[in-house]
Task: structure prediction
Amino acid sequence: MTPVLSPPDRRAVHAGRFSGTVSLRSMLVGAAGLVLTVIVTVLGIGHGSFTIAPGEVLDTLLGGGTAAQRLIVLDLRLPRILTALLVGAALAVSGALTQTFARNPLASPDVLGVTHGASLGAVAVIVLGGGAAAGLVPIAALAGALITAALVYVLAWRRGVDGFRLVLVGIGVGEVVTAGVSWFLVRAEVVDATRATIWLNGSVAGAEWDQVRPLALGLAVLLPLAVATTFTLQALQFDDDVAQSLGVRLQTARLAVVLTAVALAAAAVAAAGPIEFVAFVVPQVALRLCGGSRPPLVVSAILGALLVIVADLAARLALPERELPVGLVTAMVGAPYLLWLLIRTNRRVSA
Amino acid sequence: MRPLVLLGLGAATALSVVLSLAIGAQWLHPGGVWQAVIDPDPTAQATAIVRELRLPRTVLGLLIGLALGAAGALMQGHTRNPLADPGLLGISAGASFAVVIGIQLGAGGLTGYIWFAFAGALAASVAVFGIAAGRRGGPTPVTLALAGMAISALLGSFTQSILLADQASLNVFRFWIVGSLSGRDAEVAAQVAPFIAAGLLLALANAPALNALGLGEDVARALGQRVFAARAVGVAAIVLLAGAATAACGPIGFLGLMVPHIARSLVGPDHRWLIPASALAGATLLLLADVLGRIVVSPGELQTGIVLAAAGAPFFIYLVRSRRGVVKL
Result:
């Protein structure tokens, strides 16, 4: 990606041995995103066949509310909303990591083989197992994602892994795996093909606490890990030689970043199917909102959660009787916004 | 060296044309094929097979392969991105969306979708170019890639929404999307040939400007290139080539991504050599993949897009891993 000179709005912060700079603009964008996320979350929990006012939603979340409200909010709607938030944050951070170390704005976790591998695992189980194997789909997706990502990494290894080679090998492996998905789709019964297509578009409908807990646990470990790679990332966005001369152990650093990105994306895909567009669009939007030379991680996480939850609410508001998979709506919401940002930036540059 | 490589690629293309004519459910002797093409004996069975079935398909495969190879090289050059494929301008997504609309409107058969697909590809890529270009100066590699990705995703989500609501359309569409040379008659090749010919000419004409643009827009401008015009010509060529190819065969995107990397490792990054080499390598690989698809599950066949990914991708990975590796853009 084109390195942009960061605006002089950074403030130095010190905390014991550690010091760094914080961008005021990023803080403002992050805070605004957080406020919006909370508002949409409350609205999203309140909306449904049985509408609950925002005040009552907050009250219920904080421990009040009637028994009926507690059942609806805590047991029925909260798991879905939490899945949307977590999946969005995970995918966005995974995308930001991938785009930074690959130095390519088109890179997203699918170039690491994660999404394609998960798709093959899930579609294989759907087509071969029929309706009986529905419970196995998330496990098959997770296994597919991790195996494919490992394969990509091993195949890209030749006296170390180079970002460029990793991405190209990932594309090649992804194509083979996608061909497998197409093959399953062509030979499947049309009913199974439809079910597979629904999964392939990504959906958070029907999420339950059993799925939320492992996802939340995984993210609790992985998101801090991702933020901890910040310093490495700052070096990795330059040329390999520059990064090395800055004291970065290239192979270890790259493996850590790739592992974190893969694990985040795999957890998200296993929980909700491939909501691919989030990982691509959110880091680019965050980069354009915050300025700087690479997609910011924390702001990406917040905006990713916001995008998925807005898309989920929009899908339920637009077509209440037949739910659109959220993966489709993220593109319908996110793509125009990115396009608008591109047009606006063009105007400002040319003005 | 480079003329020799180009000659070799031409020979490989010619060989794959012969293989494509000779091999299938019934294997024919190359001599018989030659005779059927040059001096047809109307009573011979070989004549019927070659002239009625295999010749149109081979000509189509040749055209599509040339088109996608050249379009891929142009696309990666203009976006300066090794991950770009010809579909990145929104061509595949636009064509897919238009085809689904066509299915909804009841357009008949695979040939009926051609004009829908072409119109969709054209509209989508004009939108991408317009958004990426801004008011003056023309699009940069990054805006072109991002706008293309965003438009593709947007159109893709509309396509999928329609398909989810309409199982009958999905049943037709899933065979179009996979990408195949089968079932297209001679008329299809004749319909797309003029577009592909024009696109190839534009692509070759665009090569010197693309070399200059590779040095950065400011340097290109200082060298006397009209940046906006060069980008516009390049995009027009990509739309003609990839649009016609997608309209005829469905999206075979991976070919356009993989082939320029192979060609670049053979002739280097100079687009005056890269574009023809890429076109020839594209035709060779597409025809070989098509032949392979006919052999593997004979007497049936495997869709070309699937074979291309399943057989082409391992080769691509091998190339990326090889000692010479791929040449960076």
